[in-house]
Amino acid sequence: MFCPGFKDVDAFVKRGLGGVVAATKASGLLPQAGDEFDFYRSFPGFQDFCAVQGERLLHCMSQLMQHHGCRSFMKDRSKLTGLEERFDLVIESNDVILEKVGIMLDEASGVTRSQPVMPAGYQPPRIVVSSWNRKGNDHSGETFHLLHAKNIQRPQLKFKEKVDNSNTPFVAKIFVKPNAIKPLPSCELTKLQKERPEDLDVPPALADFIHQLRTQEHMDDMFSHPYQYELEHLVMPEILRSRPDPQLYKPLAETSCTFIETLEDLVALNEKLAKTTEFAVDLEHHSYRSFLGITCLMQISTREEDFIIDTLELRSEMYILNESFTDPTIVKVFHGADSDIEWLQKDFGVYVVNMFDTHHAARSLNLGRNSLDHLLKLYCSVDSNKRYQLADWRIRPLPEEMLKYAQADTHYLLYVYDRVRADLFDAANGQSNLIQVVWSKSKDLCLKKYVKPIFTEESYMELHRKQKKSFNSQQLVAFRLLFSWRDKLAREEDESTGYVLPNHMMMKIAEELPKEPQGIIACCNPTPPLVRQQINELHQLIKQAREIPLLKVSEIYVLHNVTLLTLLQSESTLFGPHDTSHVSESDLMELSLQGRVILLFLLKEDEGVGNSGHLTVAQQKACSILESFENPFRMYLPSKDIHISKNAKYDPSTKIYEISNRWKLQSIEKQQKEAQAKQEAKKQAKKAKGIYRLEVCTPAGPVGPIKVSCVVGLIFSVACGSWKPAHCRQEWDEARLKRINLRIKE
Ligand code: AMP
Ligand code: MN
Ligand code: ZN
């Protein structure tokens, strides 16, 4: 069914069109302004009817506009007076909607806008020759071809399993484990999850702790590398133990190259590979029009044949190759496998056991340059050219030239593997110590786990720091809002963040804070399609940023290790940006716009944690509790490299001092008193053997007291306006939050 009540698109369109025609007819029958209208208006019944129906229509239109992310009557009601303005809004929304329709129709019909929209009248060249990553003068003849094809359908549309762009950790896509010594973790977890200790006479938050500890082991298994055990117990294969006699490659022109795009052929290939002792592998990947990237091609070469697998077509079937890829008796030769290992896991759930990376071999041999081109030149006298490295590998059917290029990437690799091994033995005077290093480095690569990009409230700071620009408070807020807008949209639309809004454009918008939508467009040349589409949304974000107080700040202010007692004592004055004694809703809002994350940690001992060598069982348990606190709140944690020295807070020459002073955060005396209080609390805590009782009072009644031993991290985040104990199943809204009391009893 296309959508509820309609069996297909045609049925939907027919009904929709009927509705539009009927509405148009009916509106034509309404009394015209000027003549009958004034007469009708003299009847109160008519007036009421018009008012009610008018409201209904406006509401309906507003909802439509909001659904499309446009400015609507609702949002701007207070400012809207005239009919004219409303009319403009309707036109604006129509444009946005039609633009969206256009883009979708294009995509559905296979025409992509993989290139940024160009100014009218300008036709982009089909091949963009660029030299951005040319290194040194010896490469002067080399060019990189960014081959774009006009007719690329989004491969994602055909994927059997939809891409998971959600902001959650990656879960391994492996359900069958060939060559296993240790079996896959069982799926008992779901059963365990149901067995929460509800029956225990403990508060819900604590019940969740206990449950978490019980399931932790299983979770560890779930998120560990499926072949970790096998890799750790792998011994160097016989073939690597002695100096080989290099076996020359077959001439490229005489080697059969099979393009594999059916399951049948893939199975046959797998059988063939299972009989070999080594084969070479390479992948081609596309990352511009997808959030996580897509592996488009896999090249495999045996001593006899070359194969190119269409991994867009066989994406869901690729896992069968695990049989040969994880077979410890078969060497898989890669060149520079860092990304390949991740892509195999991400897209196919394929793992590699027993790999040899010729890139690491080149490094161990001190060849100076370790690229594949260099090795091919050195050992095979082949002048390869990596000019299609950045081509759009989603193109189908693949042009002959690109197929040849892909084939050449693995064709010579087994011979290179022989040659570097021979050289590694020679360089080590016939010993195997050098080859062992390469072997071990390659194994480490295989142990790498794919990690999905996770958005946190701090992610924007990482990028901001890299850009090395000093922003004022408004610019920083704009940057933060743009960053999260971009991340959200990229995940939703399955596009790269670079496609949605390239970094340099995002910086420019944040820097200039354009007053008008047109100004935002002007910051982006050429304007990315999604920026054009969501220009009103972006305009609102910038407006929001412009409304906050202008401060010359470039750091986020983070308070470390402030005890909860401190929070209680100065509850009302701690965060007030103005000199008021109460924190009002708007103050909180303003703070949240500042992106201020205030972390409150209650620690028994600063030292004890992290030094796992000296931890008692209780401390280790405490650490795991602490971790259980940290994970769900990762987004609120400060990134590790922000460090604010304690003294900076008291030193009038520092920025921190300036900020805390300006925001009347705390007086120096108060801070000193609190430092003392903190020391006291620490001492007392030590005396009390680290048992705290924490009472959390919510409007629904007290939760707790919760007994917490040793170490507890509590996180109070102003930025999101909510405080929640980890795993608290109750959702608290902002209003409730403000009525929450925290009390500590020793
Ligand atoms: P290769 O192993 O050289 O065949 O490269 C495999 C894939 O890595 C290519 O299909 C590209 O997606 C990506 N890639 C390689 N080199 C670069 C580069 N310099 N910049 C961005 N992506 C690259
Ligand atoms: Mn590669
Ligand atoms: Zn390649």
UniProtKB/TrEMBL annotation:
Belongs to the exosome component 10/RRP6 family. Keywords: Exonuclease, Exosome, Hydrolase, Nuclease, Nucleus, rRNA processing. It comes from the Eukaryota. GO terms for biological process: DNA repair; exonucleolytic trimming to generate mature 3'-end of 5.8S rRNA from tricistronic rRNA transcript (SSU-rRNA, 5.8S rRNA, LSU-rRNA); histone mRNA catabolic process; nuclear polyadenylation-dependent antisense transcript catabolic process; nuclear polyadenylation-dependent CUT catabolic process; nuclear polyadenylation-dependent rRNA catabolic process; nuclear polyadenylation-dependent snoRNA catabolic process; nuclear polyadenylation-dependent snRNA catabolic process. It comes from Pygocentrus nattereri (Red-bellied piranha). This is HRDC domain-containing protein. The keyword Nuclease applies. Its main location: nucleus. One of its GO terms (molecular function) is nucleotide binding. It is found in: Nucleus. SUPFAM superfamilies: HRDC-like, Ribonuclease H-like. The gene is EXOSC10. GO terms for cellular component: cytoplasm; nuclear exosome (RNase complex); nucleolus; nucleoplasm. Residues 472-552 form the HRDC domain. It holds the Pfam family PMC2NT.
